[in-house]
Amino acid sequence: MRNKISLGAFLVIAFILIGGMFYSLPYYVTKPGMAKELEPIIKVENGYREKGSFMLTTVRMGRANIYSYLEAKVKKYEEIYPVDEILGKKETEEEYNAQQLYFMAASKLNAIDVAYRKAGLPVHYKYKGIYVVSVVPGMPADGRLKAGDRIFKVDGHQFSNSEQFIDYVGKKKSGDQVSLTYLRNKKTNSQKITIQPFKGQPQKVGIGISLADDKEIVVDPKVTVKTDEIGGPSAGLMFSLEIYNQLTKEDITKGYHIAGTGTIDTDGTVGPIGGIEQKINAADKAGAEIFFAPNEKGAKDSNYRAAVKTAKDIGTKMKIVPVDSFDDAVRYLQKLPQK
After folding, report:
1. Under a CB-based contact definition with an 8 Å cutoff, are residues 26 and 83 in contact?
2. What are the transmembrane regions (predicted)?
């Protein structure tokens, strides 16, 4: 009898413990991710090789369960965020992930643009259509289109930018239909969707999507950037440095292992990112010797200041370098002694 009770108690405890792994809490947990060398994933056709390396840094994020929540409570460089601080109002995880992949795609385009222009090479763009960033709940596109869909025809028309798409649809009347041709998971689909007014804005009509231009950059020599499912815009600076280094004869790595983070605009401006403390940890564990951090023009709460504080706290020998632009990073590297 006692053995039966013991077995039953064991099974109940095991069920609770296992269940805790799969029960999601209304939080997300972030922790240091990886520092990944860029040369294997970025290839400029007939590009120059480098003796050192450039690395992107990442933050790991996932929905919290009981164990990851408790772990984050006690570990210094793991953070807990309520769901509504990560997802926008009525935003789904699918939409969030699609947005992050779009931000990564845009970051790659900007990085290529900056690197090629800095190398004195021409840059052109080919417009491909509309990228659906999110779908408005309760509007006609809800349940018909998804974040990540790429619309390339409207009523058989192809446009040269998203403004023309917005203008075309905006001239329709409530009750009119538009026929959309779009790409989802590499398959072409078509939908007829009825136009209706936006809630609270009866004078404004549409199908209920937020969108961005879907475009392809055209450069010579060709370049490929394979990032798989890594999302977000924070690798822009490091992408641009790796591409530029493969385009030019001088190896600006000088043999050093160089990590960093920061968004990149087409004018070369480096912008701030989230999770700088966790990225410092990731870079240190990967053996980086130099880390570029967004300086934000010397702001008191800049990424750079947070990075310096974290570097001191973990006792790394990694040099933290403030940058406001792509040119700042290049000038710093050009002045480095050869390793």
Report:
1. yes
2. 7-29
> Are 211 and 230 members of one domain?
no
Of 166, 188, 216, the one marking the end of a domain is 216
First and final C-alpha spacing in the chain: 73
Answering whether pTM is above 0.90, one says: no
CATH label of the domain that carries residue 142: 2.30.42.10
Same domain, 231 and 249: yes
Cα–Cα distance between 244 and 250 in angstroms, integer? 10
- Provide the residue-wise pLDDT of the chain in tens; the chain has 339 residues: 445 456 555 444 544 445 545 568 899 999 999 999 999 999 999 999 999 999 999 999 989 888 888 888 889 999 989 988 888 777 778 778 888 888 898 999 999 999 999 999 999 999 888 889 888 888 999 989 988 899 999 999 888 788 888 889 888 899 999 999 999 988 999 999 999 998 878 788 899 998 888 889 999 999 999 987 678 899 999 999 999 999 999 999 999 999 999 999 999 999 999 999 999 999 999 999 999 999 999 999 999 999 999 999 999 999 999 999 999 999 999 999 998
Residue ending a domain, among 173, 199, 216, is 216
Which structure tokens are listed for 266? Answer: 């087409």
DSSP secondary-structure letter at 249?
S
Q: Quick check: is 68 in a domain?
A: no
Catalytic one of 53, 234, 240, 302:
234
Which of 36, 108, 146, 279 is labelled catalytic?
279
132 sits in which H/E element? strand 124-135
3-class secondary structure, 9: helix
Catalytic status, residue 234 = yes
User: 200 and 228: one domain?
Assistant: no
